[in-house]
Amino acid sequence: MSEHNLSDETRAKLKKISTASIATALYKRGLRNQFIQGVVPVAPKQDNMVGPAFTLRYIPAREDRNPITVFRNPEHPQRVAMETCPPGHVLVMDARKDARAATAGSILITRLALRGAAGVVSDGGFRDAEGIGALDMPAYYARPSAPTNLTHHEALDINVPISCGDAPIFPGDVLVGDKDGVMVVPAHLADEIAEECTGMESFEDFVLEEVRGGASIIGLYPCTKPENQEKYEAWRKKAGR
């Protein structure tokens, strides 16, 4: 899925939708393993992270292949990924959920941000995490980790199908991240998920107002009483939703 396939309209909708709503919509379609397990925001951001996936796969480092001098190679895949991730995309790293070493640090991630990436996700560690958290670009990781990636990881493949936090990710899948974490939306479902979830979030805002006002959730969530549906329709008109 190339950048032009994620329309501005769908991107804008996904910016306002929670990962929880997306998880429910995907669950209804039988997709239960689309949440990237074990990653959290490096620092919370106001806006959702939204963009097609551009991937980097690490394998376990073998000591004779990963001396510090490998970084002198201009074709080192970690560096190449930072320089080739298209603007508007999310760089996603498969570190096999191993945070004993970093998968990137603040210098590389700053370069990624300045090149216009929409975000970065790793199921491993980041070094210089405070600097990464200070960037405007959203970033997700397992935890801070000071050791260089070469200690435990060898960057090998760029833009191939990967696993990240046990979720399957294919290049071009649409990633949506909020303060809870990151959901992976199969590329062909992005438009319909965005549309469906926009309506779900509208209804849930109405429900929350009702609950805060003392309403019972029985017959309200899910909506099985006609009077609640009528109240919702009136609320939508009043709220312009």
Report on this model:
With 241 residues, the protein is of the alpha/beta class. It has two domains: 185 residues, 3-Layer(bba) Sandwich (Glucose Oxidase, domain 1); 47 residues, no CATH class. It is 32% helix and 21% strand. The chain contains seven helices and twelve strands. Strands 1, 2, 3, 4, 6, 8, 11 and 12 form an eight-stranded mixed sheet that branches. Strands 5-7 form a two-stranded parallel ribbon. It has a two-stranded antiparallel ribbon with strand order 9-10. Strand 9 and strand 10 form a beta hairpin. Helix 1 packs parallel to helix 6 and helix 2 packs across helix 6. It is elongated. The protein starts with 7 loop residues before the first helix and ends with a helix. The relative contact order is 0.21. The model has no long low-confidence stretch (mean pLDDT 95).
Strands, helices and their partners?
Layout: H1 8-14, H2 19-28, E1 40-41, E2 49-60, H3 77-84, E3 90-94, H4 106-114, E4 119-122, E5 125-126, H5 129-133, E6 139-141, E7 143-144, E8 153-158, E9 162-164, E10 167-169, E11 174-177, E12 182-185, H6 190-212, H7 226-239
Helix pairs in contact: 1-6, 2-6
Termini separation: 31 Å
- CATH fold call of the largest domain: Glucose Oxidase, domain 1
Helical residues, percent: 25-40%
Mean pLDDT: 95
Structural domains: how many: 2
Total strand count, please? 12
User: What are the secondary-structure elements, in order, as H or E?
Assistant: HHEEHEHEEHEEEEEEEHH
* pLDDT < 50 runs, ≥5 residues: none
**CATH architecture label of the largest domain:** 3-Layer(bba) Sandwich
CATH superfamily of the largest domain: Ribonuclease E inhibitor RraA/RraA-like
Beta-strand fraction estimate: 15-25%
- SSE class: alpha/beta
The first-level CATH class of the largest domain is given as Alpha Beta
What general form does the structure show?
Answer: elongated
Tally of separate helices: 7
Q: Main sheet? A: 8 strands, mixed
Radius of gyration: 20 Å
